[in-house]
Amino acid sequence: MFTRRQMIASLAVLAAPALVRPAMAAPSEWDAWDAQITPANFDLGSTNPWGLHPRLLPTRVQANPGLTPGDIHVDAVARYLYHIQADGSAMRYGVAIGRDGLYEPGVYTIRRKAKWPAWRPTDAMIAREPDVYSQWEDGMPPGPDNALGSRALYLYVGSRDTYLRIHGTPAPRSIGTRASSGCVRMVMAHINALYDQVDTGVTAYLYPTKGGRL
């Protein structure tokens, strides 16, 4: 975990991956999709059909003193997301982060949450990898194969949407790696559990990939 001295509540970030448009699915579809992506007899801390390393499974750990309950801290070195609890503990989840220098450390505010969001790659993503992303230039509808998965937390700097997200992924085997175009990925069944515990307005700290201060 990190100390408060490592946190600085300022950083201008570059526009990055995942421009998301309003969901095009009816809430009546959400329950069916949630059932589809949640393993039978699911236990948050032990169910592992994805073959993740055991350290990447959700675990309750002791948080460092002085951290604000409700806030999120992403350790980009160990590939962990910590959600700070009121009792001084934290829920720790394995994540994937941005590849090839696309990860953007910084201090963000979660200003929006969405279940089963739609998704459109940014223009920069389409220009960088047209063979991968141009097919979705008009947007990808929500569902279990959507790039944002089952839930998304939207990261802002002030009132500006950075287009960075903490979100579910249809590629759970990427957890623990540098795989995304900048966002923080989670197993869909894991972010479903986290999503209901996160309030809008809380702070998300994304730490550098080499450790140290923001």
TrEMBL record:
Instruction: Give the source's domain of life in one word.
Output: Bacteria
Q: In this protein, which residues make up the domain named L,D-TPase catalytic?
A: 70-207
A Gene Ontology CC term for this entry? Answer: extracellular region
Pathway assigned to this chain's UniProt record: Cell wall biogenesis; peptidoglycan biosynthesis
Q: Does the keyword Cell wall biogenesis/degradation apply?
A: yes
Kindly state a single biological-process term from the GO annotations of this entry: cell wall organization
InterPro entries this protein is in? LD-transpeptidase (IPR050979), LD_TPept_cat_dom (IPR005490), Transpep_catalytic_dom (IPR038063)
Q: Which CDD domains match?
A: YkuD_like
- Drop me one GO molecular function for this one: peptidoglycan L,D-transpeptidase activity
Gene3D superfamilies for the chain:
L,D-transpeptidase catalytic domain-like
Signal sequence: where? Answer: 1-25
Arranged from A to Z, the UniProt key words for this protein are: Cell shape, Cell wall biogenesis/degradation, Glycosyltransferase, Hydrolase, Peptidoglycan synthesis, Signal, Transferase
Organism, as annotated: Marivita hallyeonensis
What is the protein's given name? L,D-transpeptidase catalytic domain
- Catalytic site positions: H167, C183
Q: What does the sequence similarity comment in the record state about its family?
A: Belongs to the YkuD family.
Record bears the keyword Coiled coil:
no
**A Pfam match:** YkuD
